[in-house]
Amino acid sequence: METFTHLFVCSFFFSLLRTSITQDSTITASQSIRDGGTLVSAGGSFQLGFFSPGNSKSRYVGIWYVISPEIVVWVANRNAPLNDRSGILKVTGDGILVLLNSTNGIVWSSNTSRRPENPVAQLLDTGNLVVKDKDDDNKDNILWQSFDYPCDTHLPEMKLGWDLVTGLDRFLSSWKSTEDPAQGEYSIRIDPRGLPQRVFMKGDSIKTRAGSWNGLGFTGRGLRPNPVYEYGFVLKEKEVYYEYKLLNKSVFSRYVLNPSGVAQRFNWVDRTHSWEPFFTSQADACENYAVCGGYATCNINNSPVCACLEGFLPKSPKQWDSVDWSGGCVRRTSLKCEDGDGFWKHKGVKLPDTSSSRFNKSMTLKECEEMCLKNCSCTAYASLDVRGEGSGCVMWFGSLVDTRQFSEGGQELYIRIAISELGMISLLCRLEKKRHSNKKKLVGIIVGSTLLVVGMIIVGLVLYIWKKKLRNQEMTKRNQMKDCDNESAKEDMELPVFDLATITNATDNFSNSNKLGEGGFGPVYKGTLPEGRDIAVKKLSNNSRQGLNELKNEVILIAKLQHRNLVKILGCCIQENENMLIYEYMPNKSLDCFIFDQAKSKLLDWHKRINIINGVAKGLLYLHEDSRLRIIHRDLKASNILLDNKMNPKISDFGLARSFGGDQIDSETNRIIGTYGYMSPEYVMHGQYSVKSDVFSFGVLVLEIVSGKKNKGFCHPDHQLNLLGHAWELWIEDKPIEFMDDLVGDLRTLSNVLRHIHVGLLCVQQRPEDRPNMSSVIQMFSSESLLPKPKQPGFFTYSPKADSCSTKHGTCSANEMTTTIIEAR
């Protein structure tokens, strides 16, 4: 029978091939595996053999899933490929695995420190290849195992970390590419310096840091109990490692670091016979290592995201104001040490980099504080283990780097500051809590504080009066907001309120020369604030089909979202008869101004179009999976994709968006709101919407970007199909190249363009369950793996404007209104 030559073949063919060439789970010193032979684990879960990834002609020895042979979880000779099919894998009498080439030269080998009497190699049902003595079943006497040398996949029961006796470092490392399993530039490992912590690296540099283990999880990663697996961290004198174990042995789960540096967890779903993403690492601004410098904290919900810790000031105010926070912060008041310092407690934080820390498992938190206070070099301390009442001690020496503030989760960190600074901070906090108290109570509190000098009291009073004046001004503005019911009043809406006069002056009294366009909400104007900052002002028109509820909805949702591919809201103005939202200004307006304009579309080469597609996909992924609430946009379209000065896309207009709870999958409504041509079939016909509704809209958008044509009102001289129908007809006729815009690019980009058309068609399938989720979409764009065959799109219909076709492109769809339909149910 013909030998197995390529990894990416269908499982059915692979199973037929295996019946004639498979050996059992063990090979002895008198046996070997030649190219074409395989080894199957006793439980039938994993298989070992020779393979060639993708279109590569190089041969490797690897381990893969029997149910999914295209998924290789370990490669022996990843950095030393064979050039032909003459490879032989065998066990020597010394208990060493060797891979030989056609001249019997050793291409790759394992190692061992002792010689067994009867060595065998065995593939376990965990996916671990071990070398041991045949008659010794003691797991601790394994001579060598593949689990000690991970590649890009972390399997259950595989340790990631260090053997501190032998110096063995077990870490994940990406493939160089999908066709080259050699060690790539990305890695995930345990940094053993100080208190061990998990880090993600590019080359020799830390890119992100999950942090140290606090008994429940890594302080920078909110690991929560789940029905699939349990996890744990071992910190002993001889070893330190992280591992996870499956709660149900019949489930397959893997954690993979792909060549692009994206880490994902996949679970096998028997119903669909496919790997479904369970988790995808997403790096927001605060994930970047030390983005705020020393003695600063990063909060993705704030703008700007970086802020100095209490008692600290920017080292370089000029750089700080220019959004360069790398210099960090410095103490406002120097430590006194012998004269006494104190500690300020910060709640809900990711602990700083622990590479220069020290720890003690037996200390109490009080003993930790005393120990830190005695050492003038100690800058902070925290509990080592937060379970129960907490235990253990970790202390920092030197600058505190890569601290992050969470709205949920995190732990307490005690930072050393001067006593005088501690007193000032305490006073300001008490004044803040007592802002509604009368002046007599305030004076009593201040006089009763014997720790503060008279001058500090005066400073505190001045600060209080100043803060109270600002709060009163803010309260006056908020009282001017109308239609604020009890439900919306409960929302934590920390958004700046602009004065109407300021916005009127900024837009030159809403002059037509400053008008950027108009949508369902109303007109949008460009403005310039007194300090010179350009803004975009969305003004609710009196005859708008959307109203104050949509405005409130957008404010509440988008104010809580922070992502580079979402438009940033700066504030609102609800005063007199005006209701407005103020955004960052996007100089290139919206995507439809380019993609559907015959002249401007020439500025969008394929590289720019890919960047726009990927940016929108990442923004949607954040909304669907990585934001604090699961957000369904419900009105994704070309006119709601804004472009900054570098043509980077930002999703806008959240007036129709809805938030879901963590366990909620879909919802229904009697009020169908959206834009024809982008709405999914189940939403238009049944009022049902979910994340897959956004995926449908995204698919339409991808096909529009590739073709440069609108879905709604699309015209073709040879038929009366809409854009989706046209794309499908060309696809099934094997002529998808005719679908692409003539301006897209040359033959070098052809395969990538066709892949985007393929993914676009997968996104617009009729049934929601047939459409991929956004994490899968991003994976499809970034990989070269085979894609499933698309089915006929939803709304495979005739175009209502086919009888009046025009060959001219449209212009900016500023008047493309959002549609509202009231249905009886």
Describe the protein in words:
By secondary structure, this protein is of the alpha+beta class. The protein has six domains: 1-149, Bulb-type lectin domain (Agglutinin, subunit A, Orthogonal Prism); 156-283, no CATH class; 286-433, no CATH class; 439-479, no CATH class; 486-584, Phosphorylase Kinase, domain 1 (2-Layer Sandwich); 592-822, Transferase(Phosphotransferase) domain 1 (Transferase(Phosphotransferase), domain 1). 22% of the residues lie in helices and 28% in strands. It has an eight-stranded mixed beta sheet with strand order 27-26-34-30-35-32-33-31. A five-stranded mixed beta sheet has the order 1-4-5-6-7. A five-stranded antiparallel beta sheet has the order 36-37-38-40-39, with helices on both faces. Helix 11 runs antiparallel to helix 16 and helix 13 (691-707) packs antiparallel against helix 15. The relative contact order is 0.06.
Strand order of the largest sheet: 27-26-34-30-35-32-33-31
Q: By CATH's scheme, which homologous superfamily of the largest domain applies?
A: Transferase(Phosphotransferase) domain 1
Reported by name, the CATH topology of the largest domain is Transferase(Phosphotransferase), domain 1
Tell me about the largest β-sheet.
8 strands, mixed
Describe the global form: flat
The CATH class label of the largest domain is: Mainly Alpha
How many DSSP-defined strands? Answer: 48
Helix content: 10-25%
Q: Tell me the radius of gyration.
A: 31 Å
Low-confidence sequence ranges: 1-21, 430-444, 472-494, 799-804, 820-825
